Queue: 4 jobs
Job 1
Amino acid sequence: MFSVAAIVAIITGSQVLAECDIKSGTGLALIGHAYLSLPVQDAHQCYEKCKSDEPKCRSLNYYGDSKFCELNNVTRTSHPGDLKENPVSVYFESRYRVTTGSQRSVAASSCQDILQRGDSTGNGFYWLDSNSTEDPYVTFCNMTSGGDTSASFDLIFKDRNTSNYVELETSFPNLSSFTVCLWFKSMERQLLFLSYATEPFTDAIMMFLSSTGLFRFLVMNEQTHGHTGTFEDKTWHHLCGTWANHDGVVRLFIDGDCKLTSDRTIHGVIPGTGKLILGQDQDIMGGAFVYQQSFVGEMSHLYIWNTDLGTSVISTLSMHCKEHPYPGYIMKWSDFTEAGIHGNITKRNNSRCLTAQDMLP
């Protein structure tokens, strides 16, 4: 019977040890997860069998006394309780193995799947293949929250129609300053992004882009406008608006760049109890929508803060499309529930919103 020292010698002689990560170990075997068992000449051949069957093969057990190889479909990270002592076995994982979700060819079924396989590299963008009707796609996985994707979704406004809107009754502090940010993608030129109405202000906050590229940004019924161009390129864009009572200045940012600054100051307080509508302009609170102004396209990750975040923060926010982009928000994307969705709007789980630099191989 082989000793642990003999097994180490076998591994070292076959040069597999150099390709094993620190999760590998002699005198150990992962029990109950072998999808293929076969005789081999040595440990190196066992390793090559596993390597050639990636990504299905996540780890292996090699038994030195019988020269037997087991290929496992999980690792010790996801099933630590199944790692058992065995004096004649070696368990190892290749440090070079392709990790689940890192490439299109090894797309995971979910963010939780990546965690369970022990392939998470932390919060970031991963390839998923969550259904049979869509090609693999890239999405942001919040691994800190255990791969929870409840805040990761897109709203797809399928046509221009006054019956298509998303409604939220608000209840946050009165606003003496704010930042509102969202991501959008469209093939249309004229777009109404959002309107926030309160009792004294029908347009407490309103963002509208005309077909000529004229952007109208209203705060407490006062309008700041200017030409920003149109964005019908089917590409995700980042939109932010800010205002603060202390200086009265209104600013509009698109893709991190300041496109509009008010030429007059606006002072006052915006009530925190009102109605927020995505995709329509409220000419009266909660209604009187105009067909030509309705939003068509996709929208994601809308957040509101009760402070002016400033240019540098907004520039950073525009670099990555993800949930919970900056702390301190008073309204988050997941506040928009199924109950508030009206008309021909689809909620797509696992957001497809990403920038060019978020794309993976």
Job 2
Amino acid sequence: MAGADPVLTDASVRCVLIVTDSTDRDEVVRDLVTRSVPVTRVVVVHQNGAAADELGAALADARVGWRFVVVGAEASVGRIRSRIVDAGAIDAEIVVLSTEEPDVRSMRRRDVFCGHCHVVTGATTAVDGTVDCSGCGSNLTVYYHYSRRHAAFLGFRADAEDLP
């Protein structure tokens, strides 16, 4: 996970907060911690939301000079990154390390933002696949556009071009 090296080896960084989506990533996290120069904190946020309070407390403690490394599956790193940005961090302070190969055509857990009712639906799908929106019930085509703000791919009605 060489993408985090500039953060881990920068002596001017006061603290590195490593956030991961699963204890399955323990080996990766241990490697990041051992390579980290500054003091490091680790928070594990499970899919069911466990440790969300711990992440909230860590973000409340964050100050200038902190950096954030997010490790996990595509869908969860996007949500965690979005939460860190909402807490006031900027892009330059965040490193995202996805444990999945970047393949939009593969079937995997993705969040899809409905362009019609603005609800985010979680589903196992590929980009260009379809998903039923959990908000308005529309059949959505999953588009390549990924919103870092919503941590989701854009979905639009599959029949949008057929409507009068």
Job 3
Amino acid sequence: MSRVISRRGLSRGAVSRPFGAYEVLAALPAAATAAADARVVCADLDAEGMVATAGGGGEGGAARLAACARLAPHVAARTGTLEWAPLGASGGVGALRLRLDCDLPPHHEIALWFHEDLLALVGMPFLALRNIRGRDDYACHECGARFESPNPLKVHLFLSCAPYEPAAFWREFAARASPPPASVPAEPDLARLEALATEWGRAQGGHLCVYCGKMYSRKYGLKIHIRTHTGYRPLRCRYCLRAFGDPSNLNKHVRLHAGARGSAGSVGGVATPRACSACGKVVARRRDLERHARTHAPPGR
């Protein structure tokens, strides 16, 4: 099994150049056929301060880091996140990038997991109570296989109970993260459906949802509500490409990005975002940060 370690130490928040999901798959053969004593890949910063394979690596260097990195067994063990690259990045729409979640001293490992938007897109399974037998005991409800950590079980379910093998995992991941256009609901069709449902909802005294009967005083309110039934989300965050149907939810989300590098506190009586010192997650309110911090506390405290 290959591993990725920091060569000279890397800082939290450092990111790689954009790359495609299929580039990760293409980078696997070199990692899989490398000699046993050469399966450690070193990560460093290139001349422009981007996370890359030590010594360069040329095209596909950042993708090779993702291909060779070990998957984190649980969220607390994650030191790197695979996420969407911002709009306008050289990789184009749908490009990925690797971001470091903590400071890495020299020779410390990058253990990779995925941003929640990517997990949702590829359909990474959630674990239910039936999967959690006890501390360090997780079971597959399909075949009974047992695991000591949650993420390996998720990957096991993702692969339909097949044994974990990097090429099989990344092949499935790339196919789901880069689906052919025919497999994705056509947005023009959803837009036309939204327009029709909005028109059909005209009623005496307001605008009626044809799906659930909820009444709105304004046509615009009905239009946004209909998206909760159709799943139409035409609005995109310019930072991470996350999709939204409601402009107000998008604006709240964008403010988290805009304030992520600012200081926490209050400006003019309005709360500014706060970042978790343990994992970097950004939340809007102090009580949300306090609640989130408890998830990092050791059991019994």
Job 4
Amino acid sequence: MNAGTLPSVPSALPDELPIDAARDYFTGLQDRIVAALEQAEGAAFRSDPWQRPEGGGGRSRLLEGGQLLERAGVLFSHVHGAALPPTASARRPELAGRPWQAMGVSLVLHPRNPYIPTVHMNVRLFVAPARHSGESDVFWFGGGMDLTPYYPYEEDARHFHRTCRDALAPHGADYYARYKKWCDEYFFLKHRNETRGVGGIFFDDLDEGGFDAAFALVRDVGDAFLPAYMPIVALRRDQAYGERERDFQAYRRGRYVEFNLVYDRGTLFGLQSGGRTESILLSMPPLAQWRYDWAPESGTPEAVLAGYLKPREWL
């Protein structure tokens, strides 16, 4: 297999669902995002295609040690299995035991400069085909994006949220408010009583209006990522920093690790379903640290972040 070749995935999905169109969109989105990041970094991403023993595969695109991106992972996967893992059927126990397929794109970018926020985005499709004539095929989409700054700027957060709002606007006036609230509630570290960052949008179990309508919304969210994030990168990438800022960045990255390993359903699903560990944990920062009973001194630039780690209205 060539280094950049995407593995094929045999389809066991209902013929009436345009699965090929979804797969084409997701692979194309991965390619577009990687191309934009390669141009910004001035270096190529590694392409790592893989196969899953139980069924399916994917392609991990990654870069480590860049001048702009200390670690970046942009992942496509299309995998399937014989029985839904517990994380996928917990809220829908009637689906337990069904075969399943999942596909999508997920990314986490950890910039080197502490003034550029870490960012996460994913868009995905999940299908649980009927096992017999008494059941119906079930599908749902999910996804979203959220921003995790270390030294927050109001204008950056507002731009990010405005782009998310505008992407959802064609689908209904209430979508942004609903998905923004969902993001605030989902990306929350209960044991720290703080949000992971300044939020964004998050949604799951989306099948409103049927496959075509839900898929159109997911495409608009995926297409909004580069306009939401890259202007922030361009604005902050040349801002000077030193060891103090890098030290605080590593401390706050520890909270990112805590969320991903304790609460993130995508991470848990990947590990429970026998996913590829290297790809699942690519979301982790390359460097992080923890301190015992420490908080930034009042009045310092580092102390400003605490005022942003709670839900608020940005627009």
